[in-house]
């Protein structure tokens, strides 16, 4: 099962118990993806294997993503930064023990933790 979410902003509060129990592929496209909201979406996907996050980072927001998915084997990140915002202290924490494929494009981060 797969799900594609496109929005100019995402502020989503899923139920606290698994709401996408069989979801294996998730594509999130947002102009200004909020780390907490995106994390909440894929934290409700216990069997998620393929995750794509695409979006334009805002001028003043600092991206701090925590991607933790025990079954994830493919992760794609495409997060270009708004013009003039290259000095922000963005960071991405990836905790995916089964990760085999990592595709990072146009992400201006000071730190990426695997």
What can you see in these coordinates?
With 114 residues, this protein is mainly beta. The chain is built from one helix and eight strands; from the N terminus they run ββαββββββ. The strands form two sheets. Strands 1-2-3-5-7 form a five-stranded parallel β-sheet, with no helix packed on it. Strand 2, helix 1 (35-43) and strand 3 (50-55) form a beta-alpha-beta unit. The longest helix is centred in the middle third of the chain and has 9 residues, at 35-43. The two termini are 27 Å apart. The model has no long low-confidence stretch (mean pLDDT 75).
The pLDDT mean sits at: 75
The beta-strand count equals 8
Unreliable runs: none
What structural class do you assign from the helix and strand content?
A: mainly beta
Strand content: 35-45%
Oligomer: single chain
Element pattern in H and E: EEHEEEEEE
Can you give the helix content as a percent range?
under 10%
Shape: globular
Q: Radius of gyration in whole Å, from Cα?
A: 13 Å
In short:
The model has no long low-confidence stretch (mean pLDDT 75). Helices cover 8% and strands 36% of the residues. The protein has one helix at 35-43; strands at 2-7, 25-30, 50-55, 64-68, 74-78, 91-95, 101-105, 111-113.
Please write out the topology.
Elements: E1 2-7, E2 25-30, H1 35-43, E3 50-55, E4 64-68, E5 74-78, E6 91-95, E7 101-105, E8 111-113
Name some characteristics of this structure:
single chain; 114 residues; mainly beta; 5-stranded parallel sheet; 3-stranded parallel sheet; 1 helix; 8 strands; 8% helix; 36% strand; globular
């Amino acid at each position: 099962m797969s799900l594609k979410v496109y929005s100019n902003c995402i502020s989503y509060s899923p139920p606290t118990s698994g709401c996408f129990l069989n979801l294996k592929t998730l594509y999130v496209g947002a102009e200004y993806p909020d780390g907490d909201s995106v994390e909440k979406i894929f934290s409700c996907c216990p069997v998620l294997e393929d995750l794509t996050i695409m979006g334009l980072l805002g001028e003043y927001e600092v991206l701090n993503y925590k991607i933790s998915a025990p079954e994830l084997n493919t992760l794609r990140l495409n997060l270009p930064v708004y013009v003039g915002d290259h000095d922000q202290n963005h960071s991405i924490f990836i905790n995916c023990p089964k990760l085999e494929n990592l595709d990072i494009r146009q992400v201006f981060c000071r730190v990426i933790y695997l």
